[in-house]
Amino acid sequence: MMGRMACEEIRTKTAPTTRTEPRARGSAYTESGAGGPADSPDAASPGETAPTRAWATRLVVVGIVLAALNLRPAITSLGALLEEVRAGLGMSGSVAGLLTSVPTLCFAVFGAMAPRLARRFGPDAVVCAGMLAIATGLAVRPYAGTTAGFLAASALALMGIAVSNVLMPVIVKRWFPDRVGSMTGLYSMALALGTSAAAALTVPMTGALGGSWPSGLVAWAVLAVAAALPWMAMARARGDVSAAGAARGVPSPRQDPDAPRITRSRTAWALAVFFGLQATAAYIAMGWMAQIFRDAGVPAGTAGLLLAVTMVMGVPLAFVIPRLATRLPHQGPIVVVLGLCGLAGYAGLYVAPAGGAWAWAMLIGVSNCAFPLALTMVGMRARTSAGVAKLSAFAQSTGYLISIPGPLLVGVLYQHSGGWGLPIALMTGLMIPQIVVGVLAGRPRTVEDEAPRRPLAAR
């Protein structure tokens, strides 16, 4: 699949050109969803050959896929062995609860740093550093020896995930402006595959490595090291993903004077809230859905399979939905369909959680595919790489902050009510505003149009 997409991308390239002026920014709505041509490296500098461009494109595709595979195993592998980790480190229940809340907090805090780091060092170098941070954190934390050391090493890995989360849409927009949907779909599918694989394989892999939980956790560091290699090659060969665009006079994320004032854009706020509400629903499902089924009388093993079904639904749909989204001028209809699937799944959990368990798991899995849709809209709602960088950081950081209380509130309601009626009512209530803000975020407009930055001469 990666080779086929790379070949398709190569076929779209034009002959090398010596043109140095930047592309004109049009106002027509393009296939990529931006308001005009994106600043991409498709057009080569005068001395760049077609084989060089083809090699670079293939390397970026491989790098994106490998990076995406590493953006969740640090979390889901720990969830699979959390009981063993607690026993091994003498970790209290409250600290274990804190550990499950750390990912979203790190995503919010460290993700906001990504645009500044990208301006300073270039997005490819930052993603490379992110992969190395993931590898280091995963390699160190099982052998830290103390709870504090384990938390610190986990935070290092999560910092690498956070900056890579934010910059992936930027890199997709810059390298594949006419294939935002396809490449976001590939990236999202790889992310879902990595999430599911870590959840499913960590326990058997631990057994195969002698039954030691540190061995089971540290094994995922190898995948992160592999992911860093193509980004190292890109950083050495080109210095920055923006190099080819700079040769044509196209502004890079480091120098674009037209980066929007993102907080003044209504679309940016709608997208941030949509991202936060879909993340809330996803983390509630990951944290509590198996328990809902178990309390309804479903055996523990079957409840785990049901959760796996919910997660695996994202693998094929994460590839299909972004491609469909880029073909529509308004992504609101997709938001509505996904939201209705979620509402139907929650209704089923309330009325007959055990009787239709497989159907409810599938419906909620479809609903959770709002995540790749949100990533696709990040690439579509900004015209330039600088705009995508700021929008991605704002939407993801703000969104993850919004998502923090949801899973905790579900636990509180469950504990105090003694049942799942109130938690399911909360999940249903949150889905309605998710649909509303998703429809608003899906309108065909860009943040540059809503919140343009003042020209340099006027400052």
Entry keywords:
single chain, 459 residues, mainly alpha, Growth Hormone, Chain: A, globular, disordered N terminus
Verbal overview:
The protein has helices at residues 2-11, 50-69, 73-80, 82-89, 93-111, 114-121, 123-140, 147-175, 180-208, 213-218, 220-238, 243-247, 266-295, 300-312, 314-326, 332-351, 357-367, 370-380, 385-403, 405-417, 421-441, 447-450. It has 459 residues and is mostly helical. It folds into two domains: 37-255, Growth Hormone, Chain: A (Up-down Bundle), CATH 1.20.1250; 259-450, MFS general substrate transporter like domains (Growth Hormone, Chain: A). α7 runs antiparallel to α8, α14 packs parallel to α17 and α15 runs parallel beside α18 (370-380). The chain is globular and about 55 Å long. The N and C termini lie far apart (48 Å). The model is unreliable at 1-47 and 240-255 (pLDDT under 50).
Q: State the domain count.
A: 2
Q: State the fourth-level CATH superfamily of the largest domain.
A: MFS general substrate transporter like domains
Query: What is the assembly state of the chains in this entry?
Result: single chain
Which percent range describes the beta-strand content? Answer: under 5%
Helix-strand string? HHHHHHHHHHHHHHHHHHHHHH
Helix and strand layout, with pairings?
Blueprint: H1 2-11, H2 50-69, H3 73-80, H4 82-89, H5 93-111, H6 114-121, H7 123-140, H8 147-175, H9 180-208, H10 213-218, H11 220-238, H12 243-247, H13 266-295, H14 300-312, H15 314-326, H16 332-351, H17 357-367, H18 370-380, H19 385-403, H20 405-417, H21 421-441, H22 447-450
